[in-house]
C-alpha cells in the first residue's frame, strides 16, 4: 500500500502538487501550528519550499517568495493570537486554559533559564527562541509572566518569524535542489527538519543523564 502511495505522489504533475499544497493551506497549517505547538510547522514550510523550488525559474522566482511571505505572516499572527490568549490568563485570577497549557509544556528549569535570558537580551531572545526547536514556548511564557506588552512582543516576534521562515525555507531549498523530483526533495527536507528538531531534546537528555551521574557520585 505504501508503494502505491509513493508511486501516486511521484506521478503527480507539478501543477497538481502546487495546488495540493496551496498557499491558503500553508497559511492555515502554520498559524494552527503556532497556536497548537504539536504541529511540525518547520517541516511544513520546508516541504512547501521544495514544491515552490520546482515551480520557480530564473524568470519567475515568485513561488519561493510567496512561501516565505505566507509562512512568516502565518507564524506571526499565530504567535500574536497565542500571546493574547496567554495575556488573558495572566490578568485573570484563575488563569486560563491557554496559559495552563503553556505552563504544562515548560519545565521550571527551562522557564528560569528563559527568564534569565529575557532579562539580559530582550528582543534577541525572541529571535533565537523561534530558531531553536522547542525554544519558542519557554520564552513566550517568560514574556507573559514578565507582563511584556503585546506591542513590544510583536516587534521582537516579527523579526523572529521572518528569520524562522527563511531558515526552514532554506532547508527545503537545499533538500529540493539535491533531487530531480519534488517528492524526493520533500522527503529529504522533512527528514532534515525532524533531525534538527530532535537535536535539542537529545542534548537535554544527555545533560540530564550526566547531571544524574554526577549526583550519584557525590552521594
Automatic annotation (TrEMBL):
Main localization of the protein? membrane
Name the InterPro entries for this protein: DedA-like, VTT_dom
The UniProt keyword set, sorted, is: Cell membrane, Membrane, Transmembrane, Transmembrane helix
State the compartments where it is located: Cell membrane
This chain belongs to the protein called: Membrane protein
Membrane topology of the entry: Multi-pass membrane protein
State the coiled-coil residue ranges. none
This protein's source sits in the domain of life called Bacteria
**Start and end of every VTT domain?**
61-172
Q: Where are the transmembrane segments?
A: 26-52, 64-85, 158-179, 185-203
Pfam families of this UniProt entry?
VTT_dom
Please state which protein family the record places this protein in: Belongs to the DedA family.
Amino acid at each position: 500500500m505504501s508503494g502505491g502511495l509513493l508511486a501516486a505522489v511521484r506521478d503527480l504533475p507539478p501543477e497538481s502538487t502546487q495546488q495540493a499544497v496551496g498557499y491558503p493551506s500553508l497559511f492555515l497549517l502554520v498559524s494552527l501550528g503556532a497556536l497548537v505547538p504539536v504541529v511540525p510547522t518547520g517541516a511544513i514550510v520546508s516541504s512547501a519550499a521544495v514544491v515552490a523550488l520546482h515551480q520557480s525559474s530564473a524568470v519567475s522566482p515568485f513561488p519561493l517568495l510567496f512561501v516565505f511571505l505566507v509562512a512568516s505572516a502565518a507564524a506571526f499572527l499565530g504567535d500574536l493570537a497565542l500571546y493574547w490568549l496567554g495575556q488573558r490568563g495572566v490578568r485573570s485570577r484563575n488563569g486560563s486554559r491557554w496559559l495552563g497549557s503553556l505552563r504544562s509544556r515548560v519545565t521550571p528549569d527551562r522557564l528560569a533559564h528563559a527568564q534569565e535570558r529575557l532579562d539580559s537580551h530582550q528582543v534577541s531572545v525572541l529571535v533565537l527562541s523561534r530558531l531553536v526547536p522547542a525554544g519558542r514556548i519557554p520564552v513566550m511564557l517568560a514574556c507573559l509572566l514578565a507582563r511584556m506588552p503585546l506591542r513590544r512582543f510583536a516587534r521582537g516576534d516579527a523579526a523572529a518569524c521572518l528569520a524562522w521562515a527563511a531558515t526552514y525555507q532554506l532547508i527545503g531549498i537545499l533538500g529540493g535542489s539535491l533531487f530531480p523530483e519534488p517528492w524526493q526533495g520533500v522527503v529529504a527536507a522533512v527528514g532534515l527538519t525532524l533531525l534538527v528538531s530532535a537535536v535539542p531534546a537529545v542534548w537535554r537528555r544527555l545533560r540530564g543523564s550526566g547531571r544524574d551521574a554526577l549526583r550519584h557520585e557525590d552521594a
